[in-house]
């Protein structure tokens, strides 16, 4: 069979770019600024409970597509499960996944799905990962909120994720330099 026939039978997959990260959500109150009258000390109820869960997420800045999973901790086993389920969610494309240099992202035991390519960002540069803006957006809605149980917090996070539309995600994460690079890629 010629190369031409193979290419016709297996057309190239579309390439999609996603930004991926993990964020901790816990019962310890997220503090923030409070507006008060001049000279009045702000008062807010807070708690120091150190129970938490982790939200693993991947977002596509160009379209606002997203994928999230909750785990009790961060390690290579959880990350493997995240990668496997992410790959199943977007099977028709070749998915470039921007990640930081976390140890579990570079584990020797990690088996990267065939439709995923990990793109490592420079060390100590979280500002380059667009999903960081999404974490800030979610946590802004949790400032001064107090939850008695992790289940209550998980319910609130589920509601916040449900309320995220692709347009909101794209507006938060669509950095100009990323969108320009992706449009240049499409032009080739």
TrEMBL record:
InterPro entries in the cross-refs: RNaseH-like_sf (IPR012337), RNaseH_sf (IPR036397), Tc1-like_DDE_dom (IPR038717), Transpos_IS630-like (IPR047655)
SUPFAM superfamilies recorded: Ribonuclease H-like
Coiled-coil portions: none
MF annotations from Gene Ontology: nucleic acid binding
Domain Tc1-like transposase DDE: 20-154
Classification via Pfam families: DDE_3
Gene3D superfamilies: Ribonuclease H-like superfamily/Ribonuclease H (3.30.420.10)
Protein name stated in the entry: IS630 family transposase
């Amino acid at each position: 069979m010629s190369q031409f026939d193979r290419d016709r039978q297996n057309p190239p997959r579309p390439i999609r770019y996603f930004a991926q990260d993990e964020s901790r959500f816990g019962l310890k109150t997220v503090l923030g600024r409070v507006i008060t009258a001049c000279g009045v000390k702000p008062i807010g109820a807070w708690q120091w409970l150190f129970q938490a869960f982790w939200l693993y997420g991947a977002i596509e800045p160009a379209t606002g597509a997203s994928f999230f999973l909750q785990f009790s901790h961060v390690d290579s086993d959880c990350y493997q499960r995240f990668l496997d389920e992410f790959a199943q969610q977007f099977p028709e494309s070749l998915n470039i996944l921007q990640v930081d240099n976390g140890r579990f992202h570079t584990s020797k035991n990690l088996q990267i799905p065939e439709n995923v390519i990990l793109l490592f960002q420079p060390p100590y540069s979280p500002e380059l990962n667009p999903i960081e803006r999404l974490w800030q957006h979610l946590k802004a809605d949790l400032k001064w909120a107090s939850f008695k149980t992790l289940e209550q917090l998980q319910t609130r996070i589920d509601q916040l994720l449900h309320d995220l539309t692709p347009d909101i995600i794209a507006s938060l994460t669509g950095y100009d330099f990323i969108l320009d690079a992706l449009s240049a890629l499409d032009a080739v």
